[in-house]
Amino acid sequence: MANPVALFHFRLDASHGIGRRELLKLWSAACGSNDVAVSRVESGGGHIKAHTYSLLGPARSVNIEDAENRMHDSLSTALPKATFVLRRY
Question: How does pLDDT run across 28-43, given as a tens digit for each residue?
Answer without folding.
Answer: 999 999 999 999 998 8
